[in-house]
Design a protein that fits this description.
- The chain is α+β, with helices and mostly antiparallel strands.
- The chain has 2 domains: about 100 residues, Peroxidase, domain 1 (Orthogonal Bundle), CATH 1.10.520.20; about 70 residues, Glutaredoxin, CATH 3.40.30.
- Helices cover about 60% and strands about 15% of the residues.
- It contains 8 helices and 4 strands, in the order H-H-H-H-H-H-E-H-E-E-E-H.
- Strands 2-1-3-4 form a 4-stranded mixed β-sheet, sandwiched between helices.
- Helix 1 crosses helix 6.
Length: about 180
């Protein structure tokens, strides 16, 4: 997210969560995930919402038709306000920021994991258990991606902390160590 997007997304995300604080945080997170997956899953919807040549009324009609029965009425009203204010083009940034804040409020830690091979469900549960102890979070949400270049092992990112147990990372560390001892 660019710094301009963050500056725009932050107040809207905070306002949305404040507006939604009357309801269940779980339903707010579900609504945000629904909107996020719908927008990221449809290039046409993303293009339409970010096109400055399409008027706000058309965008509002599209938002209503796509999300009317899928999300809470407060969330829908918030999306319509974004259309009115000309900020719907920043929807992905706003949703990402709102999800980040909602997860934090619900004591859910989002952890990014890059693995050389896909995890089994037992491995995921074991990792979640260890991460709960490490972070003190009540719940852990894993974002797992695979990267065969790691050769073996995985990399875990919790906030700004990175734990690299991959073979590629160990080789880099060994190379760095050997390179510095030769000099």
């Amino acid at each position: 997210m660019s710094s301009k997007n963050v500056k725009i997304a932050q107040p809207y995300a905070e306002a949305f969560l404040e507006l939604s604080s009357k309801g269940s945080l779980e339903s707010v997170i579900n609504d945000l995930n629904c909107v996020s997956s719908s927008v990221s899953g449809s290039a046409e919807l993303k293009t339409l919402l970010s096109n400055p040549l399409i008027n706000s009324q058309t965008k509002k009609n599209v938002v209503r038709s796509v999300f009317n029965d899928k999300i809470d009425s407060n969330t829908l009203k918030f999306l319509l306000v974004l259309c009115d204010r000309g900020r719907i083009s920043y929807l992905e940034s706003i949703i990402d920021k709102a999800l980040e804040l909602a997860y934090k409020a619900a004591s859910i830690e989002t952890v990014k994991v890059i693995s050389s091979v896909p995890f089994t469900s037992a491995q995921q549960e074991a990792l979640i258990s260890k991460l709960k102890k490490m972070t003190g979070a009540e719940q852990i949400r894993l974002e797992i991606t695979t990267n065969s270049n790691l050769i073996g092992g995985f990399i875990v990112q919790v906030g700004s902390k990175i734990i690299d147990t991959s073979i590629q990372g160990q080789l880099k560390q060994l190379s760095s160590y050997l390179g510095s001892s030769v000099l």
